[in-house]
Structure formats: C-alpha cells, structure tokens
Amino acid sequence: MKTLIIYFSQTGNTLKMAECIREGIVEAAGQCDLKALGEVEAGSLEGYDLIGLGTPVFYFQEPFNVRDFLKALPDQKARHWFLFGTHGSMWGTMFLSMAEILNGKGAEVVGYHHMYADASLQFYPYPFVTSGHPDEKERAETRAFGREIPGTSRRIAAGERALIPEPVSCPDLWKWVAQGFSREQLSRMLPPLQVDLERCTRCGLCQEICPVQGIDIEAEPRRIQDPCVYCTYCITVCPTCAIGGDIIDLMAALAPEFAKHYIRNLEIAEAEGKFEWKIDPASIDFSDSLFRQRERKIRERKTKASRD
Asked: CA 174, CA 212: separation in Å to the nearest integer?
C-alpha cells in the first residue's frame, strides 16, 4: 500500500497533526509521503492507494482553496481517502462537504479525525479558548489514528464495507452558519484589507504565504486580495502590522459573541471527556486583540531602540 498525506497549514498546527498521523502510518505500514497542498497537482496522484487530506477549519467549513483542489480532482476510481483537520472548537461542515465532493469524484472516505488547536486570529485576544492545544494526549490519539487507518483501508478493500464511516456530523446550526459564509458573501460582508504604506517595508512575507497568490507587493498600487480565500494570514505574518483596516475593529467587536458559542461547545466536549481547558475562559480579555498586542510590542521595541 502506497500512502500520501496532503496538508494545508498556515500556523503549523495542521502540519503537526499530519506529522503525527504519518508517524503512525509509517509504524504500521512502513511508508507514507507527506506533501503541502501547494506542492500537489490534482491530477498527479496516480500510484497512491490511500491519500489523507488535512486542513484547518475556516468559517465553519474547509478553506476555499482546499475545496477548489478537491473539485479539480479527476475520477478517483474508488481510491481510499481519509480526512483530518484542526479547529478551535467547531469543525462545522468541513467533513460533510469534503466527503461529498470526494464521493462525487468516485473516492471512498475511510476515516476522519479532528483535533483542537491553538487559535491565532488577529481579531481575538491571546491566549484564547483552545490555547495550549494540542496536548500530548491529543497527539497520541492522532498517532493512533495513523496506525489504524492502513488496516482499516485494507479491510474495506477486502470487502468489510461496514467499516466505512459516516462523515463527522455537525449541528444544523453550523450548517446554516457555514452557508452564510460563502466566498461571495464574505467578499460583501468583510471590509477590504488595507495596506498602511508608511508601515509596509515590502519584505514580501505576505506575498510568500498567500495560498492563492493573491498579493503582489511590487505592483503599484500593491495588489492584495486578488484573489482571496479570506484566511487573513497576511495580517498575522506582517512584521510591522501594516495590513489591516476596518476588518480588525469589526471582527474584534464580534469576537465576544462568537466566543460564547465556542465556549459552550467546549464545555459540552469537556463534559464528554473530549476536551480539557488549559486556560480559564473567564480570564480572556476581549478588549485586547492579538493585533493590538502586536502593535503594542512594536511600539515598545521602537521606544526601547530610540532610548538605546
């Protein structure tokens, strides 16, 4: 059995998850390739018997670039896939949607796994609800999933069809919310990103990390969000906080209401023995977003440098 894991990761959480799964697969089956989504062509998967695809959750669903990759796949001819993902309390419709696309391509999805991971959205304060995750217990469970998935695939291929799992379900509310965050609706709802030309040093980090090559720092004016999957990771990586605009204040204002739903879901998971708090949620300071924390540190460094 030849196996491949494809991952889309920005802050590194999903990559760490992919590596844990790979460790388990190698232990059980002896081989597993690991590639970033941007390194893989949809039509270049011949020769693999089992493929895993991992991604973080964006807007209660899989990121749009991941969805585009799946839709570009050729006929999978009953090839086995497994899906995994990281999230900050809600996996939303991600598994349902990805499995539906894969099934439509003739694939069989033979496993699912999800994991809590530290959030780094600039609109939320830090630490946030899942700070401290994944912990060692979660990583061990992920490696165990990796050890099990080759055997599950073989048994299904041998005729044990009852082993094919149903996609990880989600409440109808999440389905409704995800539908409200389509690519088109986000383009209308979210204020466009703005570049502060006085802060921008044209370092190129934002252009380098954009998953859809939607940024050109050499263009005049600088091109940004053309195209865009609304990951906002360019805001995160900019070392001078030059990318932002009205979206920062808008989303920071909405953060407390979103957090109520996150906390409620995590409390349910805690009661079921599936989640352990690493922070006290009552300690979260919603008046101090991560973006503002970073701006403050930049000012402090400049002040210190001027004194020195």
From this structure: 26
